[in-house]
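Notes from the 1:1 (GR / supervisor)

We went over the backlog. Supervisor wanted to see one worked example end to end before approving the batch request, so GR pasted a single chain during the call. The sequence is below; no edits were made to it. Supervisor asked that the structure be written out right there so they could see what the output format looks like.
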Amino acid sequence: MSSDGAAKVVIIGSGPAGWTSAIYAARAQLAPIVYTGVPKQDPGPVLPGGQLMLTTEVENYPGFEHGVMGPEMMAKFQAQAERFGARVVSEDVVRCDFSRRAFQLHTDSGRIVHAHAVIIATGATANWLGLENEMRLATSGGGVSACAVCDGALPVFRGQALAVVGGGDTAMEEATYLTRFASRVFVIHRRDALRASRIMQERFTSRPNATVLWNKAVVDVLGGEKIEGVQLEDTVTGERSRLDVKGLFIAIGHTPATKFLKGSGIELDPKGYVRLGSRSSETNVEGVFAAGDVADSVYRQAVTAAGMGCQAALDAERWLAAKGFH
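Structure output shown during the call:
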């Protein structure tokens, strides 16, 4: 805390970006306070620790030669931040007032927290279909995922029939990626035409193991501990059928966790992501920085989020020093 009782820096969010920010800020003796958020359904699971809490095995993060479970990785990140003195609070920040100094952050418990600098690292949540078995298998590592680039190369999916739900560029990109590993990739689309750009469509449909299922909607995910298939409903005739697959990837978009910024003065882009300035982590409000998926609609990887968290902490440290908050 500074002499006026305000925290030097508050970090909102507890994924790779938030914890990396906390590690760097704590080592710089800024005594950061991390508001981790609380578990909720929105409609899919949203957990402190971010989307890695729904990832069973992470193979593409440097330093983990044999992979690491997503929740285990986030626990290690948190322990490292706490080792250097980061303070962790299990509450949601529900409203921000950046019009005054020090900034005022309102939590779900009714508290008002004052901070001289703020790092927004609340991430983005995948849009889910909202089916009970989809959620069950996604949270248990049963073969349902919202990130093919993250999970598609895992041994469990190699040589298997896989399905992707969606029709936009993201769905085409993820489905094309999966064709490298799968025996067959089915794109399930509820209409008779894809929304994706022509070049992205052709990139997928030109693969020999690619199939598009038109006018189909997933109405159930089948399987006990692991997915065995999906039940489809024809959106024109209503006829139901079964498709046997060993993996289901939901690619119907992401929603940045920025609702709490409404009325705060922070500029968002048309999709709701925090808009960054010319430097990597600066927002339009001096002293407020952003990192990770909340400001990144392109890469959405743990390693890029962590890198952005590092940048935000360094930018915050320099800004605080320039303002005399040592």
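Supervisor's comment: The radius of gyration is 21 Å.
Batch request approved.
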